[in-house]
Amino acid sequence: MPLSDGNLSQPYVGMISITPPENTIAYFKNQLGEVESTKTNNRTNPILSGYSTITSLAMPNEAGCFNPNRFGAGKYEISYLFKLHPPVEVDEKYSHLNLKLLDEHLPYRNMEVTIHDPRGLIEQLFTHPPMPSKKVGDAWIITSSSPENSLLEVEMLLKPVASRVIRGFPRIVSDVEGQTLSANSAYSGNNALASNLFNGLRALVLLFPLLLLLIYYRFGKEKSYIVPKTLSYVPSKIKPWVVNLVFKGDAFDFDQDGFYATLLDLSRRGVLELESEPSLRIKLLKDATAAEDSYESKVLSFLEFHSSNEVFVADDFEDRVKDLRNNRPEDLYEIRKTMNRLLKVADKKVSMQFVSSGRWKMAGLMGLFLTVAGLVSALALISGSIYPSLYQTALISLILLAQSVLPVFAPSALYGRWKSDYYKEKLEWEAFGNFLSDYAMVQKYAPEDINIWKEWLVYGTALGVGKKVSEAMKQLNIHIPEALAVTYMSVYFNNVYGLTTPPSTGSGPGWWRRRFWRRWRIWWRWRWCKVNPYLHHLPGAKVINLYYSVIFRRKRDDQAHSTIQVQGFC
Question: Residue 517 pLDDT more than 90?
């Protein structure tokens, strides 16, 4: 309602007086934007120099006080006296008055609203949101707190004579009581729903560990198997890279030990030959057709592509990568992508043959709570001022969402389950790894057959204990080229893999982003020339077509130069 010190022809708030702190100027700004000083406040001087400042800063229908010297830290008290001329709904039995006291405001931690009713006109009183209220003598007292920018309304169902006592603007409405009770019933129901949602989500936050425990017992708990702490034999004859992928650490995580173990296994089978002195050299005895699975085929193809005369020399490969890093860093992308597939990523479909991952369940649970948090946050933004509990509910939903994120990164088999008896096999591989890590046990069960030592070295490397096996062989005077290669392989390949990271080019987007956008622009221009032959005569059209035709046709020779096959389109 507008604020005025005169009479208006519409519902308004009459300004009676303002008692401001000492040395301040009381003012109010009406609906027309006119700033006036209060008439009944003797301490208020004419606004004078503060007029322009108040006019620019104050909002329409605002009352307050102004200090030309600014307010310092401290406590200030100001009192207002208004006279309300509100709209009043009336029928034959009741009158209805709804007062919105707060809407956009600072938070009030302790608040008391007193409504004097000396004539006993109030039949029923409703507060929005629901707050404790009691009648003491001839006054209704409401005590509560109000969060920032939340609604505070007092709705009253009055005797019909109230429309004549209150100097307002009565309006005849049918069934005042029924409409009032219906509206408050709907509000109370919605408010109760918001409160129940808050209580439910809060309980879920507290019971979340129990929920995880129930999910574990339902989907993740494994059968019990009796497996010794150590095993001196290989549990099963499967590929070493599969052992690394499935039985070392998480069942869906692969690391470089699987690559090194595959090289050792190929050497054991006579597909290649490893030499560690003077530097790491891998002699290819057979081509990629000797591979028994797709991963071995990728390993052999990689070695063959970067070999010279069927010999892969680690030092030469490192020099080639350094040359690319210094001269053509954008060409490192393909090498890094290939090495990443060999050292970091394996076929995760293989893991699914052994275990069902529980991360999908946890991801689904997180998605559910993400949806809840999003919906509750949206409701809080839309209706939080009317139902303040929605703000707390949104905060609780975000806490619940944060709780659900952590289980997504738990071991994949924790909330999943191993298929068939593969959990027993996992325990056996762990026992075999414990055996190879214990030099005393290795010394006690040391075999005489050199092939068994090679097998232990292969699978020990796959399990991450290959260096311990190599050290045990050294102490037992068992010498094979593969034992020395275990140490050198990790040094060479880790170093080269690090070199495949393109050097920093300063500020701005990365090289791969520049490469992508550059090629996208070239492709687009080339397609435009192909679609519209009338543009072929434009400057640069031939260059664009030629460049696009050769950019993906480079072939690396042994000297790390480029052979380009050129084919023009224009």
Answer: no
